Amino acid sequence: MALSGGNKQPLSNAIIDMVSTIISYKFTQLNRAEVNTMLGITFEDTTLYKETLEEGEVKGAARLVIRLLTERLGQEPSEEIRARISHMPLPTVESLALALFDFTSLADLEAWLEAQ
Fold first, then answer.
1. 91: domain range?
2. pLDDT per residue as tens digits for the range 49-86
């Protein structure tokens, strides 16, 4: 994390994010409200919270798309394809969710993945 130069966020926000991260890892027995009170900030404003939320959204969307693909194609995608879907950015997973309704075979899925 760069704290100087062409920094995109002010130094104070960077420090708050760093302290929030340390607190969340060191005081795992505290709930969110207790951390907010301890720090005097809203945890939802931290980069850690935002990144964790986004990661959760991507993982959930990827799991759902993999399940839909399994139902649509009548077979579970390979581990390689599941891993590839799980590492896609959310907008790409959303595009795949729409595209899968046009798939009739695993080859359609593979062709779509290659086009991305």
1. 59-115
2. 777 778 888 899 999 999 999 999 999 999 999 999 99
